[in-house]
What does this fold into?
Amino acid sequence: MNTSPSSTVAARPCRQPLHLGSLRLDSQIVQAALSGYSDLPMRVLARRFGAAYTLCEVMLDQFLANVGTNRRNLARLAIAAEEHPVGGQLMGANPDDFAPAARRLVEAGFDCIDINFGCPVKKVLGRCRGGYLLSVPETALEIVSRVREAVPEQIPVTLKMRRGIDDSAASEEKFFTIFDGAFARGVAAITVHGRSVVQRYDGPSNWDFLAAVKRHAGDRIMLGSGDLFSPQACLDMLAHTKVDGLTIARGAIGNPWIFEQTLAALDGTDPATLTPPTVHAQREVIAEHFRLACDLHGEQLAGRSLRKFAIKYAKLHPEPLLVRDAFIAAKTTTDWQAVLMQHYHTDAPGRDPSGDIDETTE
It folds into this structure.
């Protein structure tokens, strides 16, 4: 069933504060954890454009046990003073490894620990991590208990789930066992993605399921995820599901403006009147993203790491394919400046990328 309608008849949502345990957020709009993407530069820009809270890309418990002093490893734990509150997301298989990993995230300065039970990537599932744990409620809930017991009481623990392994009744029963059991063990909030693990990113996110889970949750804090590529979609999910907040994932890659626009829509602006950023506005943000990446990673690595973002930023340009290819070819700061000078020199209206097909892993 198609359950992400653009014409849901419901009361218009408005900006609301969101409480994640001890954290008091200004709005219900959050940047999701995105594997390989939501590093410090992306999170800082999301916060500057209005995200009330951001989540770091998922980190393995085994990685956290062996970070060492390698600059590239430490960059994954880096937090900017301006981005608090920020959450660290944790993934693994063995409950014994979660407590020390959670404590390492707290030591690094993260304000919340989020546990990933949602990743549908094949290699993750094959190692009994991420979405696989939705098939083993006993292990999943033991992990929740270990993390909650390991970190200080004032540090919220949250959970990311998909709606189950598949569409079977047994899968749904296990989902609710974990959902209710996690709250009973002290999690402050749970984010639910409306696709199953086997569905990965194919087909629509099931917003009817999210609505049913929110009705079941009552006053327990639940956030929704899936198919949030525009301010209108964000309004629609809030109206249709009544979830307490949203985590914008793939829709935020190369488009931090989605947070500013969604807040404007929640404050009463008609989403149809919101326009994409101009070419010059895009140039300013891309240059700042590159500067932040250079500061974090060094110039050489920044050039490589920004290519995946550049592909997304280019979607907002009036000539997306031409600009995408130019960014992919850029390897140095000089190359990046040349692309900005050539393709972003003349100002023009931006392009709405929300209708594009996006296969990026979240």
Notes: The chain is about 45% helix and 15% strand.
